[in-house]
């Protein structure tokens, strides 16, 4: 345990502090997505989370003086803050299915899972052989937590919109990691990820519409009938 | 043999205490005696808590499009109740009358332990740490519950049963907030956490501090009967907790319970403001002017926080009673993340 004096002297720099704060916001939106019952709320939270990611990229762009990073900010805002949430909202509107999501796990069971994800994410990041110069280690851990909690959202929520949001937020977590570990070529990494995201958005939108047309619901539970 | 880290921690803590002791000695010579300031802390919480409560009710009424009660209405209510006769249910033992008195005494002791007006610990501030304050609040709640259960009234027993059950569920979050304070400051004195937050903006904005503050905000929301399941003063039995416990009390005993509830709210506001969220505006010396300025700052901060709570209360729909665990789980996750971030991420 650090002493009081040591804790006071170890105050992080303003840049690291702001990066940690925005990363914290991203994690909190991820946790709120896990708790949210309405798919529409999850879409809004995804929009907020993506704005946080854009802020992280903007902070890095302003401090590292890398022009490419501003393109990354623009790409993130255009795609993740505006286009994807708009498309998901339209899908919800079109299918008229903004009803409450079905949960596979109750809160009592979800709590230890969240705790395990947080512990695993922070421990994993601590033992990764990565020491990014411009990204505080704690933010690296938070990015890992985002990825793990995104998996948990996909497990807990059984409707397709929630699972799509989980996948997109997972991509946000991976983007955060990319921003941290590939600070010299973030645009290249992000363009690759964004291409994956675009394909996923198109594929998932088609799947959602077809599934809704056939079953009149967005619940993924019915897909279990395809087994065997 | 003690570890070097532990020795450094003990040395730093001793140095901190020594500095505070020096400040106290200087204060006696320069201004109000620390004991007088400490009594003033209790009087401020005692005297201003109904005002903060009345302001919250007023803001809430305005948000709902109503005119609302006067700001001083809680004072009039207390005066009226103190003039009335006390009725004791048949078969109730001495615990019925003792419960409200003991609870009120607990609420009078807690302001001695927390930074209400000063940024430095006063003599009795060493009497108990942040857990000690928590134990006193829990003891007060226990006494009120026992007094309510004594009446035999089903509503009062329902309220006391719910209060004890949900009190136990929120305990882990409070404990983890206390752990965060201990990890950040190497002490469990609330004054030290406030001093760490005042030390620099980076300290005030560090993730562990923010997460602990957010978790404590949720705890206060729950403990002041705002959300998630009840409304302040509501008598709808589906979500009724606090109001049900006072159903059978009347006269001065009911006045003590109402005043105690207002004091508890004020104490929680003070901890949230002066330890976590806004530990600024506190007096750095015992001179009358800074102390009076601290009283003014505390009133302004408490009224602003009361308005924030009223807005939050009116912005979110109430949950079903059994959904309360989700709310508490959210508070626990935030507090847990605060502790874990300090251990694993230097947050």
Can you describe what's shown?
The complex is a heterodimer of chains A (228) and B (347). Chain A is mostly helical. Chain A has one domain. Chain A is built from eight helices and no strands. In chain A, helix 5 runs antiparallel to helix 6. Chain A is globular, with a radius of gyration of 18 Å. The N terminus of chain A is likely disordered. With 347 residues, chain B is an all-alpha fold. Chain B is 71% helix and 0% strand. Chain B has 13 helices and no strands. The radius of gyration of chain B is 20 Å and the shape is globular. In chain B, 53% of the residues are buried. The chains are: A mainly alpha (228), B mainly alpha (347). The interface between A and B is large, with 36 and 40 residues.
Fraction of residues in H or I helices of chain B: over 70%
Please give the radius of gyration of chain B in angstroms.
20 Å
* Through-space gap between termini of chain A: 55 Å
- Counting H and I runs of at least 4 residues, what is the number of helices of chain B? 13
So what's the oligomer here?
heterodimer
In percent terms, what proportion of residues of chain B is strand? under 5%
Spans of chain B with pLDDT under 50 lasting ≥5 residues?
none
Please state the average pLDDT score of chain B.
Answer: 82
- The portion of residues assigned to helices of chain A is over 70%
Query: Which overall shape of chain B is indicated by the principal axes computed on the Cα atoms?
Result: globular
Q: Provide the low-confidence segments of chain A as ranges.
A: 1-11
State the total count of DSSP E strands of chain A. 0
